[in-house]
Design brief:
Layout: E1 29-37, E2 45-46, H1 58-63, E3 69-70, H2 72-92, E4 103-106, H3 111-121, H4 132-135, H5 142-153, E5 161-168, E6 172-179
Length: 180
């Protein structure tokens, strides 16, 4: 919705994918994944109409229900309250701590949120990869775009643990742990 100044200026445009192949060596590749949803908070980021719950009609279009909506402060609070404990549990279940993570590649929501998240989970900004400053928030594409930047940098070393974290609409959370 071009009239919604709370969201129009926040997002970039991008697409990303990760092509996986056989991992070279035992204990390499994708080690673990976690998906979670927090349906009670789905109103924080949503497109209310146009889907199966509220199909598109002349009335829903007139009401603007086909447009993306977001409660920015609510999303920030959601991330602060839910993502660090989820990451802590994800790592702990594997006998790992934040000190074991060589590279953190999060969804590129915004700079301040990423700084806070990196510090809160204990990886710090020095091990956190960002691309928001160049591309903005490219939504779900931001994780593969940022992973590509990290890979092209030459700084991902053989055997490094890489933590990927995506969060957003619905409210959903996805985590992946990769041994590079």
């Amino acid at each position: 919705n071009r009239e919604d100044r709370r969201t129009t200026i926040l997002f970039g445009d991008g697409a990303g994918a990760v092509v996986l192949g056989p991992a070279a060596g035992e204990g390499r590749g994708v080690l673990a994944n976690r998906l979670a949803s927090f349906a009670a908070d789905r109103h924080l980021i949503e497109v209310p109409g146009g889907g199966s719950r509220i199909p598109a009609t002349a009335e829903t279009l007139a009401e603007g229900l086909q447009y993306f909506t977001m409660n920015g402060r609510g999303v920030r609070d959601f991330v602060a309250a839910n993502v660090p404990p989820a990451i802590d549990a994800f790592l702990s279940e594997r006998g790992l701590t934040p000190a074991d993570i060589a590279h953190f590649v999060p969804h590129q929501a915004n700079g301040r949120m990423l700084e806070n998240l990196s510090e809160e989970i204990g990886v710090g900004t020095d091990r956190t990869w960002t691309t928001y400053e160049r591309y903005g928030n490219t939504g779900s594409a931001s994780v593969p775009i940022t992973l590509d930047r990290a890979a092209r940098s030459g700084r991902l070393a053989d055997g490094d643990l890489v933590l990927l974290a995506g969060f957003g609409g619905g409210m959903a959370l996805g985590l992946s742990l990769i041994r590079w």
